[in-house]
Amino acid sequence: MKLFICLFLFGLVSHTALAQKSESKALYQQIAHLDSVMFQAYNQRDMATFKQFFTSDLEWFQDNGGLLHYDTVIANFQNIFNREYVLTRKLVPGTLEVHPIQNYGAIHIGRHTFSHVENGKLEVGEFKFLMIWREEQGKWKISRVVSYDH
């Protein structure tokens, strides 16, 4: 009887672990896709699409700029889009982490580079970020951002 209980518990734990791994993989793929689509809009200076990725109660914590809210963040990005040079964002391969937040959404962590040519010289900066995604009725939006290591 003890052997049966042990085998049953082992099977239950194994099944749960596989289900969690499958859910984690699906969540990772979902957030990786959203990251790609969001920054494709960024790289194309498509503000109409880009700003749809953020909640209206957005809080953006910038290590060198403090706490910013939705209207300021969108205005700052619009200023970037209006510059003469094109600032391009790329996710650093192998740095993306995605972690679920029960009954809320996901944590999105990684590093990315921003590059542009200025005065004939390629300028590249690499920075760290943490984003909190909120999922509501199948729609994903970023509610919090921590941008650091500038």
Automatic annotation (TrEMBL):
The keyword Signal applies. Pfam families: DUF4440. Keywords: Signal. Residues 1-19 form the signal peptide. InterPro entries: DUF4440, NTF2-like_dom_sf. Residues 31-142 form the DUF4440 domain. This is Nuclear transport factor 2 family protein. It comes from Aquirufa rosea.
